[in-house]
Amino acid sequence: MRYILLCCIYLALLSGCQQPATTPALQTGAEQTALYLPLLAGKRVGLLVNQTSMVGEQHLVDLLLANGVNVVSIFAPEHGFRGDHDAGASVKSGIDSKTGLPLWSLYGANKQPAAEQMQQLDVVIFDIQDVGVRYYTYISSMHYMMQAAATHGVSMLVLDRPNPNGAYVDGPVLDMKFQSFVGMHPIPLLHGMTVGELAQMIKGEGWINNAEQLQLSVVPLSGYQRSQPYSLPVKPSPNLPNAQAVALYPSLGFFEATPLSVGRGTTFPFQVIGYDKFSTGNFQFMPVSTPGAALTPPLMDKVLLGEDLRQVKAQGLSLQYLLRWQVLFKAQGETLFSSAGFMDKLAGTDRLRLQIEQGLSESEIRAGWQAELKQFRRQRQPYLLYP
């Protein structure tokens, strides 16, 4: 772990990130090409990337090819290499039409690269924009790639990007009995870390097998503080189209385990809540089949009534929406958590669901996870790269 931290400090110094008199412009890891292009000379390179892996107006794949890097293959997470697959839709392997490179899916039957795919590589790069919420699956794909790299002796390079929810550490810490692809690590729902910091923690805490064998490097952000606002230049997935959806996602993602709609199939997904039988509000909308919502979002082609959250000030995790709808469902004699097992995977525990069903207040529920959050803050400290 000391080697990793020294490496990151060295990279940070190379990028000239001593504190100047004026605040420097934020630069992502991918934008600091002088720090990582020399590391790729003569190497066979794989890329775990998607539509967010941009360097200005150019995709990282195109930038590397233009600089003579030997890119061997591309790996695609949930939503695909181009970010156009529905949530939960299987991503197929094939050939990238633009570059002619092999395109291997890491979302579908195989979450981890095959041995023969890794044996063709010397180094794999992870460069994907995350949103800082544990059940958002890009960090799960990063975990599996780290595991494959450690197993097969392939170096891993993470090009860091900001966490748009980086100011918050909140929610239940995952109980490993509820580990799944929507929750791989014993971290809070909102962990407040960048993917580079989290990669260091995954290695340092031994959350992958043979962690000590993984040669991990991180190109850190320049001019970044975790509390600063960051509006994503490219939507990270089809149903997180803007900053408001990203900010509400920690609170509304739980509704995926209920019969309610959060706006998939509208122009404002994860910014509304609605139902066809009864409601807590009078906002009207109708989800329809659209790209990114063509599978089985609930209540398709029905007029729904509910809450319009497009103008609310969303900050971190709020339980008020779940608690409000729970009261209404209980009064109607219906069950809010129609997919109780999935809710428990999203929460990383069954405790949250049970507390909501028992009628506990938000303050009572929050009190139950404060000790775990305090411990997590101490545990993550050695891996943090930014103030």
From TrEMBL:
Domain (Peptidoglycan beta-N-acetylmuramidase NamZ N-terminal) ranges: 45-243
GO molecular function: peptidoglycan beta-N-acetylmuramidase activity
Domain of life, per lineage: Bacteria
InterPro entries in UniProt: NamZ (IPR008302), NamZ_C (IPR048503), NamZ_N (IPR048502)
Presence of keyword Ligase: no
Domain Peptidoglycan beta-N-acetylmuramidase NamZ C-terminal: 248-386
Signal peptide stretch: 1-20
Assigned keywords, A-Z: Signal
Protein name according to UniProt: DUF1343 domain-containing protein
Natural source organism: Rheinheimera lutimaris
